[in-house]
C-alpha cells in the first residue's frame, strides 16, 4: 500500500482502540467481528406525545438536528461567539503545565478567574474577596447548588411570572412549591411581591433583575429598592441570576451591588457570551453561604470546575479582544432586534417591551392565538418555538412567545408563522 | 519604548480587561486606581478545628499547595497522566468547527464518545445501544444524579464498610440513611448483605465491585452471583461505580455485565486514567432510567457535558496511544506497589490485601494505633493522610489508613510515619 510502517502501526492502534480488531500476544491482530454502532444513529427522540412543558423546549432545542430552526432558543448562533479567541486559548492550553491538563480543580475553582471576577465586581461597586466567589460547572448548577443548600422539599420559592422555564424544571426537581409574582415592565409587581412575602413566607426569590428572561425588561431602581427592603425585613434571600450581564454596555445597578451581598446571592456564567461548550458558572455570596456550598459541591462533583475550562475562559476574558467582541455583538443585536420587531409586527405580533439589550423579545400573538398550538404545528416546518406558557407558573402566557432575535435570520420562520397564524396551514 | 503600536494596543486592551485602566470616549485611557487582588492570595483554608470527616480529606487534598505531600489521595501524580496525548487533542480541538467550540452539548452528550463506550462494553459482553449511555459532568455527578432520581430523604442505602469516603458525603447531602455491610477480601460479607437486604430494605446498594476503594479488593464470582440474586429477588438496584476499570489489563467480570443492566446501573469516568481536568462521567442503565436521568440533568445542568471536553476524551481514547499508556501505567503500578508494601511493612504497616491492580493499599497500623491521630500529627510535616475512619460507616477502621502507592515516592512520608508511629514526634 506504499504506506510507511508507522502509519500502519497507528492504523492498527486506532482499530484496536475502537474494538474492531484485537491483538493476540505473539500471533498478531484479529478482526473481532464487532463493528461500532453507526455514527448517525438517531437517539430516541423526545416522545411526540409528551406534554409541551419546560423539558419539551429544552430537549427539543438541545437535541434537534442542525437543519431545524430554533427562533426561540436561549443562545446566540455559534458564528456570533468569539471562536477565534477560543481557538487561541485552546492552543495556549495545549502548551500549559501538566497540572492544568490533568489534575482536579481546587474546591472553589481557579483563583485566576475568581480574581478577574472580583475586579469586575469592584468596577460595579461591589467590593468582595475572591474567597466569596465559588466557580461551578455552569450557571444552572450554581442555582441548583444554592437550592440544595437552602431549600428542603415542600419549601416555597418565589419566581417571576413569566420566568426562565428551566427555573421551574429545577425547582420541581427539588419538589419545591413555586409561587409566581406577575412581572411588569419595571420588574415584579411590587405590591403583589410584598403581599406574597407576607402571606406565603417564601424561602427564596429567584430572578433575573436585568435583561429578564423571557421579557428582556429591567427592574427599575424604585422597584429594586422596595424589593430589597421587603426581603431584608422578611429575612428572604434573593438569588439574582445575572447570566446576561455582558450584554449591557454600561451595567445597570444590580440587586447584589445595592445590597452588598447581604440578602442577595449573585449567579453568573459565560455560556451566553463566551461559550456554552466551555461551561462554567459562579456564585458570589456571603462567606458562610460559600462555605456550605463548597461542601455541597465537593459531595456532588468532587473537585471544582475543570482547570482547562477556567483557563480558557480567563484567557479569552483577559485577552483584550473580548470587550471589542461584546461591543460588536451589542451593535449587531440592536440591528437584529429592529429587523425582527418589524417582521413580527407585520404578522401582528407585538413586543411586550422593547428590550434595552440581550437577544430576547417577548411577543404577543394577534387575536389571542394560542402559542402552544402554534409551536406544535411549527414542528412540521422543522421549527422549534418557545411557547409562552412554558415560562408561566400561572399558565397565563398562552398568547405570548419568546423570540431570540439572533436566531430569526431565516425567512422561513416568518413564512411559517404567517401561514399558521392566518390558518393557511 | 521601541515597541510596535499593535503591542501597545494589546497591552492597553489587557489592562482594560483587568479593570486596571478604563477608556473614556474621545479622551484616552485612565488609571482606575483599582488593582486586581493579589494572585497569591490565600483562600480561607479548611478550619483546623474541623472534624476529620470525609470533607476534611477532600478539601485538604484538593486545596493544598503543591509542596504538601498527599500519600493517601485518590489520583495519580500528574506526570503519570497521558499529557502528550491531551496536548495533541487540545491542539486538534482548536481546529474544530464552531459548534464544538461554543455550543451546548446535547442532552445525552456527544454520540462519538457514547458510541466508543458501547463498543467497549460489547467487548466485555454487554451489548447495549448508545441510547443507554448518558454522559455526565463527572463520575461523582453520575452517582448524584442517580441518587436524585431514585432516592428520597430518609431512604436507606447500603454501602461497603469501608467504602469511598465521598459516597458518605454524597448520601448525607441527600439526607439518606446509610447502612454499611462489612467488606471482606472477596467482596461484601454476603451473609450480612442478605440479612440487611431482608431486614432494612435498602433502596440502593452503591459499590465498586472491582478494585474496591479503599481496599483494592475484588468481588469473587460466587459473591457476585449471590449479590445479584439477592438484589433481583428484593427488587434492589445496584450502582456499580467502575471508575477504576481501565487499571485492569484483562477486565474481571462486572455485575453490570452479568446482570445485563437489569438491576445494575453502571457508572464510570475518565478522571483516574485520562484527566481529572477534562472531566466527564457516564451512566449506563435501562432506557427508562436514562430517560428520567436526562430530565434531571437538563433541570440541574441544562446541556450535557461540554462538547470540547468529550471531543478531547474521544481523541485520546481513539488515538491508539491510550492502550499503550495504560499498559505502561500498569507495569509502573506493579513496581510501585511492591516498593511501597515493602517500605510500609518495615514500619509494621501491613496491607489488608495485596491488590491486583489500581493504586490503593489499605494498610493496618501496628499496635492498634489510631490513624486519625496520625493524620492530624502529620499535618505539621506538611503531609495529608487518609485515615481509615473517614471510609467507615461504623467507624471501625481507626487502625487503617489508605495509601496511594503512586503518591508515596517521597522518603519524607516514611520518615514522618516512623517518627509518629514510634512516638518520637
From TrEMBL, chains A, B:
Membrane-spanning parts: none
Family annotation (SUPFAM superfamilies): PLP-dependent transferases, Winged helix' DNA-binding domain
Boundaries of every Aminotransferase class I/classII large domain copy: 88-414
InterPro entries referenced in this protein's UniProt entry, alphabetically: Aminotransferase_I/II_large (IPR004839), HTH_trans_reg/aminotransferase (IPR051446), PyrdxlP-dep_Trfase (IPR015424), PyrdxlP-dep_Trfase_major (IPR015421), PyrdxlP-dep_Trfase_small (IPR015422), WH-like_DNA-bd_sf (IPR036388), WH_DNA-bd_sf (IPR036390)
Any GO molecular function: pyridoxal phosphate binding
Organism superkingdom: Bacteria
Coiled coil: none
Gene3D superfamilies from the UniProt entry: Aspartate Aminotransferase, domain 1, Type I PLP-dependent aspartate aminotransferase-like (Major domain), Winged helix-like DNA-binding domain superfamily/Winged helix DNA-binding domain
Name of the protein in question: GntR family transcriptional regulator
Amino acid at each position: 500500500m506504499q504506506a510507511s510502517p508507522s502509519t500502519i502501526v497507528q492504523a492498527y492502534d486506532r482499530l484496536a482502540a475502537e474494538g474492531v480488531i484485537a491483538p493476540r500476544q505473539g500471533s498478531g491482530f484479529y478482526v473481532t467481528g464487532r463493528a461500532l454502532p453507526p455514527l448517525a444513529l438517531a437517539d430516541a427522540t423526545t416522545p411526540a406525545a409528551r406534554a409541551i412543558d419546560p423539558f419539551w423546549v429544552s430537549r427539543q432545542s438541545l437535541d434537534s438536528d442542525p437543519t431545524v430552526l430554533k427562533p426561540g432558543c436561549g443562545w446566540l448562533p455559534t458564528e456570533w461567539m468569539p471562536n477565534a479567541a477560543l481557538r487561541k486559548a485552546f492552543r495556549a492550553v495545549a502548551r500549559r503545565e501538566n497540572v492544568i491538563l490533568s489534575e482536579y480543580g481546587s474546591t472553589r475553582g481557579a483563583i485566576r478567574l475568581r480574581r478577574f471576577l472580583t475586579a469586575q465586581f469592584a468596577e460595579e461597586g461591589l467590593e468582595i474577596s475572591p474567597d466569596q466567589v465559588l466557580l461551578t460547572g455552569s450557571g444552572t448548577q450554581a442555582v441548583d447548588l444554592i437550592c440544595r443548600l437552602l431549600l428542603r422539599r415542600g419549601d416555597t420559592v418565589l419566581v417571576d411570572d413569566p420566568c426562565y422555564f428551566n427555573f421551574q424544571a429545577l425547582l420541581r426537581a427539588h419538589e419545591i412549591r413555586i409561587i409566581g409574582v406577575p412581572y411588569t415592565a419595571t420588574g415584579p409587581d411590587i405590591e403583589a411581591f410584598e403581599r406574597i412575602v407576607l402571606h406565603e413566607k417564601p424561602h427564596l426569590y429567584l430572578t433575573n433583575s436585568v435583561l429578564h428572561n423571557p421579557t428582556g425588561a429591567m427592574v427599575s431602581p424604585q422597584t429594586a429598592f422596595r424589593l430589597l427592603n421587603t426581603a431584608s425585613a422578611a429575612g428572604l434571600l434573593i438569588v439574582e441570576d445575572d447570566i446576561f450581564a455582558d450584554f449591557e454596555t454600561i451595567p445597570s445597578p444590580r440587586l447584589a451591588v445595592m445590597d452588598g451581598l447581604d440578602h442577595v446571592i449573585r449567579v453568573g456564567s459565560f455560556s451566553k457570551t463566551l461559550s456554552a461548550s466551555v461551561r462554567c458558572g459562579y456564585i458570589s455570596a456571603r462567606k458562610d453561604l460559600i462555605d456550605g456550598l463548597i461542601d455541597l459541591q465537593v459531595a456532588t462533583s468532587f473537585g471544582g470546575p475543570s482547570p482547562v475550562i477556567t483557563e480558557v475562559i480567563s484567557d479569552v476574558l483577559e485577552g483584550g479582544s473580548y470587550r471589542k467582541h461584546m461591543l460588536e455583538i451589542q451593535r449587531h443585536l440592536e440591528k437584529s432586534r429592529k429587523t425582527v420587531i418589524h417582521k413580527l409586527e407585520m404578522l401582528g405580533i407585538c413586543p411586550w417591551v422593547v428590550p434595552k439589550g440581550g437577544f430576547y423579545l417577548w411577543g404577543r400573538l394577534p387575536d389571542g392565538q394560542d402559542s402552544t398550538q402554534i409551536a406544535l404545528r411549527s414542528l412540521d416546518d422543522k421549527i422549534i418555538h418557545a411557547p409562552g406558557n412554558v415560562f408561566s407558573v400561572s399558565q397565563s402566557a398562552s398568547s405570548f412567545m419568546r423570540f431570540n432575535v439572533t436566531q430569526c435570520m431565516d425567512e422561513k420562520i416568518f413564512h411559517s408563522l404567517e401561514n399558521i397564524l392566518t390558518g393557511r396551514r
